[in-house]
Amino acid sequence: MSGGRGADGRGTRGGGGGAGGRGARSTAGKDTPGPHRWEAFREGLRSGELGSLPVLLSLASIWLVFFVLDGNFLSPRNLSNLGVDIVGTGMIAVGVVFVLLLGEIDLSVGSVSGLAAAAFAVLNIQQGMPEGLAVLVAVVMGTAIGAAQGFFFARVGVPAFVVTLAGLLGWNGLMLYVLGSSGTINLDDRGLVARLTSHYFTDVAVAYGVAALGTAGFFLVSYLDARRRAAAGVPSRSLGGIAVRTGALAVVAFAAAFVLNRFQGLPLALLIFLVVLVGLDQVLRRTAYGRMVFAIGGGVEAARRAGLAVAGVRISVFMMSGTMAAVGGLFLASRVTSASQASGGGNLMMNAIAAAVIGGTSLFGGRGGVWSALLGVLVIQSIASGVALLGIQGAVQYMITGGVLLVAVVIDSLSRRAQKAHGRV
C-alpha cells in the first residue's frame, strides 16, 4: 500500500511509509492551526499521499475478522507467537525494501537465507566452529553474495531480475550441496541461534521499559528534528502534533507490552527486530546515504547528473539485501532449530517481497521505508495465523495474500497517478 518518505524523510514522495511516516506539515517554522492541519491532511490524501493508512486499515480489518471467527486470535499466546513468527521473514523483507527503493527486485533472498542457515549449521554442528564465528561467517557470506549480484547489475549491466533469478537457482543448489546427503542438520537447542526465538524476558519491567524508552526516544528525536527544521526556515511539525503522535505510539507500545507480559514476556527476537528497524530507519531518513538511495530511486539519470555514485549505491543495496536475507535465514532456522533442504524454499521469497510492497514500499522506486516491512509482514503472518486457527486449507491463505498484494499494487499505481496529476512526482 503505497507510501513512504522522500530522501530527507519529509514525506514529499508519498507520505509516511511506516510507523514513523509523516502527514500534514506546518508552514516554515510556524505551528499550523488544527483545522489547517486537517485540511493539509485531506489534500495529501486527494493528491495520493496515503501514507500508512491503507495497510493499517487492512491490518485492523484482518484482525477484526479473525477475532470474530475465533476469539483466540487476539489471545496473548497467539499474539506473542505472531510477534516471533514475523521476525525471520521481516528481516528479509527489510533488505528487500532497500532494493525496491531503487525500483529493482531481488529474487534470490529466499535461497540466500537458506544457504546462510545451512552454512551456519555445517560450520557449527559438523565442523565444530564456535557459534559466534559461524554466525559471522554466514552473515558475511550473505553480504558477499549481495555484492557479487550488485556488481553484475551495476557494473556489467545485467538486469537485476536476471541476476537474482540466477542467484535463486544457483544459491539453492549450493545450499543442497553444502547440506550433503543428510539433508537436515539439527541445531543445538541451548545454543545462541536457537535462543534467538526461544528466549523471553519474563520480567514485566523489561517490556514496559522498552515501551517507555521507545516512546521517549520518539518524542525526543521528533522534537529535535522539528526545532532544527524550524531554525532552517523549512516546514516543521508543531509541538502539539508531536505530542499527539507520541501519545498514539505510547498507547500502542504499552498495550503491546501488556499483552506480551500476559504470556511469557517480551520475546528476544521481536526486540532485536525492532532495534534493527529503528537503526535502519535512521540510516534511510537521516544520512547522506539514505538520501542517495531515495534520489536514485526517484530518477537514475538525474541522480547521475547530480554527481551521485550510482553504481556504488546500487551495489550497496544488494549487499544490504543479502545481509538481511542471511540474518533472516538464521532466525528462521532458530524457529525450527534446524537447517534442511526446505530452508529458504516454499513461498518465503514471495512473502518477503509481498511484505515490503503491502507495507508501503513502491514497486516503482523512490517511496517507502523499513517500517513497511513490519506492517507488511504483520498482514501476511496474521492471515497465516488466522487461517491456521480456523483450520482452513493453506491454499486459502495464498489466495487471500495474493488478493491483498494485488490491492496494494493497484493502490500504489493509483497513488502515483494522483501524485503526477498534482505535480508531486
Automatic annotation (TrEMBL):
A Gene Ontology cellular-component term: plasma membrane
CDD domains from the UniProt entry: TM_PBP1_transp_AraH_like
Compartments where found: Cell membrane
Keywords, sorted A to Z: Cell inner membrane, Cell membrane, Membrane, Sugar transport, Transmembrane, Transmembrane helix, Transport
One Pfam entry name: BPD_transp_2
Top-level taxon in the UniProt lineage: Bacteria
Main localisation: membrane
Membrane disposition: Multi-pass membrane protein
UniProt-recorded name of the protein: Xylose transport system permease protein XylH
Species whose genome carries this gene: Streptomyces ficellus
